[in-house]
Structure formats: C-alpha cells, structure tokens
Amino acid sequence: MTQRASTPLPIADSRAVRAVIWPLLRRHRGILAAALLALIAASVCGLAGPAAIGWITELIATGTDPVALLGPGALLLIAGLGQAGFGWLATVALSRGIQPGVATLREETVAAALTLPLASVEAGGTGDLVSRVSGDAEEVSEAASGAFVAFAGAGITIAITLAGLATLDWRFALAGALAIPVQAFALRRYLRVSGPIYAGGRRADGVRAGAILTAFSALPTVRAFGLGGRERARIAAASEASMTWEFSAVRTATIFYARLNLAEWIGLAAILSAGYLLVTTGEVPLGAAVTAALFFAGLFDPINTVLGVFGTLQRAAAGLARLVGVLTHPALSGDARDADAGDGDDATAEAASSRGHAIGLAARGLGFGYHESLAILSDLNLEVAPGEHLAIVGESGSGKSTLAAVIAGQRAATLGFAGPVLAGQPTDTPVPLVAQEGHVFAGSVAENLLIARPGATAEQLEAALMLVGARGWVSALPDGIYTRVGGGGFALTAERAQHLALARIALLDPPAVILDEATAEAGSDAARILDRAAEALLAGRTALVIAHRLDQAARADRVIVMEDGRIIEDGPHADLVAAGGRYASLWSAWSGSNGAAEPKPGHG
Ligand SMILES: Nc1ncnc2c1ncn2[C@@H]1O[C@H](COP(=O)(O)OP(=O)(O)OP(=O)(O)O)[C@@H](O)[C@H]1O
After folding, report:
1. Does residue 254's CB lie within 6 angstroms of at least one atom of ligand 1?
2. Residues 65-103: pLDDT tens digits?
3. Range of the domain at 38
4. Residue of the nearest CA to atom 6 in ligand 1?
5. Contacts by residues 20-28 (CB-CB < 8 Å, ≥ 24 positions apart)
6. Do residues 137 and 189 both lie within one domain?
7. Whose CA is nearest to atom 4 of ligand 1?
C-alpha cells in the first residue's frame, strides 16, 4: 500500500531473469539431459559422413579393390540414419523440456498482470502490458522451440566438428580458425547495432498497440466527436515508427550475413591451401585433406545458424526481460511469483479460509491523488467493523469510487493506509470490488464464473447462481450454464452482466466486499433483482456499498456522506435524516421524487 502511483512497468535485469528461468528449466532436467546426449550423438554421426567420403577418396586414390568401398559405404548410410534419428530425438526432447516452462512463465505473467495495481498499468500505458503478454510472450515462446533448439544443436555440432578437424591435423584447425576474427567482428558489430534496434522496435510496437487500443476503447467518443481522422493519424504515425525500426533491423541483418559469407570464403580457402600443401609434402593422406575440407564446409550451416539466430534470441531475451519485469514488479507480493501456475486459486483459498474471521475495512490518514499535484482524498479516516454494512453517498466526483478502489487495493495509497483489517491490524485478505459495469468475458457462463475460483465444481457454480438469484435466467439460456456469452456469444443485458459479477463474488466467498453498482433504474425490476442479489450476497460479510440510489443507503447499517474527497457526515440512516444535514436534504429530495416509503433500518 506504500507503492507510489507512478511506477512504470519494470524490465528485469539478467539476474532476475535467471532467477525466474532456472527453476522452470530445472523441473525438466531429466529430459533436457537426454536432449543434450541426443544432440552430441547426432553431431558425431554428422562427422562420420565426411570421414566416410574421405575414406572412399583415399581407397580410390590408392587403387584398392572396389569391394573395400563397402565399409565406408555402410558407414555413410549408418551415419546418415543416425544423424537424422538423433537429431529428431533431440528436437522433440528439447521442446518437451522447454515449452512447459515457457507456458508456465506466460501464465504467471498474465496472472501477475491481472493483479497489478491499476496505477502501475496506467503509468506504463495499457499498450505496454498488452504487448508484453502477447507480442513478447509469443516471441519468447517461438524462440524457445525454434531459435533456441537450432542454436543448441548447431553450437554442439560446431564444437564437435572443430575437435574433429584438430584430430585430423592441428594445422587444419588452425587454417579454419582464420575465419574466426571476421566472424567475431561481424557478430560484435551486429550485436552492438541490433540490440538497441530490437529494443526500440519492441517499444515502438508497444506504442502502436497502445494507440490502437486507445482508439478502440474510446470508439463511441471518437465517433461522436468525429475524431476518426486524428486517431488514424496517431495510429499511422505509431505504425510508421515501428516500420522504420523494422527496416533498420533488416538492413543490419543483411550486412551481417554478407560478412559471414566472407568469413566462410576465407576459412575454406585456408583449409584447401593447407590440404594442398600437406598432401603434396606427404604429411597427410589425400583422404584426410578431403575430410577436413568437408568438415569445414559442414560448419557453414551450423555457424550461420548460431550467428543467425542470435538476432532472434536477442529479441526473445528482450521479450523475456519484459515478461519477467511484470513478475518482478515491486507492487506484487512474493505470492504471485511463487505460486505454481497449476493452482491459480490461491487468492480464493485465502479468501475462503479467512471467511468467518473478523475482517473489517479501514482508511487511516489516507491520502490519494491520481496525479502528484492533485489530492483527491486527503487525511481520510474510516473504520468499517467486521460484518458491518457501510453505504457511501455523495455527488458525482466526490471521490466515492476512488476511495473504494484504494480500499480494494486496486489503487495504491499515496499516504497512510487503506484496506482490510483483522483485529484492527492491516491484513492481506483480498477484498473484491464489483465495479459499475460487470464485464462479461467471451466464453461460457461457467467460464465467466470460474474466473473467481478456477477449481470450482458444477455444484458450487449452481450454488453461487442460486445465492444471488441468477439460476433461473441462466438455466433458461440455450445451453444453460454452458451458453457462450460475451464477444460473439449470447448478448447479456447490463443488469445480467452485473448479476454474473455478483455470482462471481458469491463463488469467491470473501469475508469483505465492495459494491459499486449503479446501472439499474430506481424502482425497476432489474433494480429489485440486483438489490435482492446484493442483499443475499452481503449477508454475513463486511461490506462497503457505493449507494447510487438512496434506498441502498437506507438499508445499510451506517452511511457516510462524501464531499470533495472528505467525509462530511457519518452515522445510521435514521440519525442522519433526523440531524437535518446534507444527507437529510438528499434523502428528502430523493424520497420525494421516488415516492419511496422509509425502509426498515438495518439489513436484517
Ligand atoms: N482515472 C482517473 N484519473 C484521474 N482522475 C480521476 C480518475 N478517476 C477519477 N478521477 C477524478 O477523481 C475525482 C473523484 O472521482 P470518483 O470517480 O472517485 O468520484 P465518484 O464520487 O465515485 O463519482 P461518480 O459517482 O461519478 O462515480 C474526480 O474529480 C474525478 O475526475
């Protein structure tokens, strides 16, 4: 709760990345070791091919009986089969060993992103977070199964081939080594130039994603004010910036490959010259010189692979640092990171286990502002006793939603404390907040509920729907609880979306809850249904209700009236009405226009 509101999303350093990646890989160390062995076996088989051809050349040059060619011929066949077989095994084992780790990382990052304080997400731009969990995650996942596997295989082939060259004659190895300075130069230049280019490219992608997202999320406003042209121009500018980075990346890669070709030419020329000299002086048989040249030629592919995937690996490393950055965000407790991806319902378990405990809500010396210079809440003090229902009333803009968001932990307090308390002391129990618009995710009704509690059984889902009185209309849907709703599915009214949001909370079963529901028209059927749902849901829980209709306030145990981010009245409905202050005049205006009879005080 001490986190400043303006911390941008961090990028993890290499130590933090290793600390996250290492345990993920260690879980699959058996299969990864098998992959390594298969890679070594495939590379050794790869060397047997050129060796067999050198052997054949030697036999032909010395005019041996053609039957003797059967030996190297058989070796050639076995080597080819062995290389293909072991290569396949290695690729399969490597991706089996790596992909689960990548999937876990991705899930953990998305889970962490969902629990980040809104302020942190907004500070970095929503586009930044979206591009991390989509583009960057994709990049890392593709690199793990493509580039990384190719890199490991090629690297081992190079090491074993160099050893093979040296075994033939150390001078071959020396001649081949002439290519290394050119390669090293090419690689150094490439890495120095391309690193910032790729990082810049990813940043530009983030800006572009942000521009598109902003335009779409504000679509009604954009249309209403004819801002389409302006938004298109903004997106076009962001796309062009991203494209410019892409061009630079292609140019850099082309120069890099040209330099690698030069290095190959130098190395092969040196080996052929060395072979010629060594054979003519009789120091090395012809077959060995042929084998050496073939070994070296066989290095082209793996060297190009190793150097060529560097770019991809670098890009993936940049993406990995951005992914892990989300996980290491200072606003996240250690729990999000340590939680096994398999059991995402930790928060649920915690909520359920603390049910029945005396969880209250409090704000103490609370200060908050969306911007440093402008305080929205200042020195606000509030105690909601365990089991108490408190209604917040106030004009639009008085800070009701802001106070709710800070107490729910969605926004970080700038000063003081706000949040759940146990025996008066701050505690970590999550306090869910039901926002004004219940969001319907594209998926079945069941999936929409399971968000709150991933492992819940069908009976638990039914019970939650029953508690809030939504079971009737849900079972009347074409496929009942399995009906697809949200984007592309069965359209739900705002009230039904809100009803589902309440059912989600029922499933979560938290000891304390905050409701900010406004949508239903006072006196309408929808309002009555949602009121009943809220009443059933809140029974036995501590609750903070942002009352948009005063009948909601009248049912609460206590009411606070807010004005300009401060509490100006605080007491039970009846007392505040009797006191004849701000609440009393609000109430008389409201009950006059809604013809409401004074409801029974208390929530029963
Ligand atoms: N995301 C935000 N960024 C900057 N300022 C904000 C943001 N959300 C709200 N505000 C400002 O904070 C102040 C309090 O707003 P808040 O939404 O908390 O009031 P409210 O009483 O809940 O109003 P309403 O009943 O209209 O929801 C207002 O001045 C509002 O303009």
Report:
1. no
2. 878 888 888 998 999 999 999 989 988 888 888 888 888
3. 8-169+312-332
4. 370
5. 20/105, 20/324, 20/327, 20/328, 20/337, 21/101, 21/105, 21/320, 21/324, 24/101, 24/104, 24/105, 25/97, 25/98, 25/101, 27/100, 27/101, 28/96, 28/97, 28/98, 28/100, 28/101
6. no
7. 370
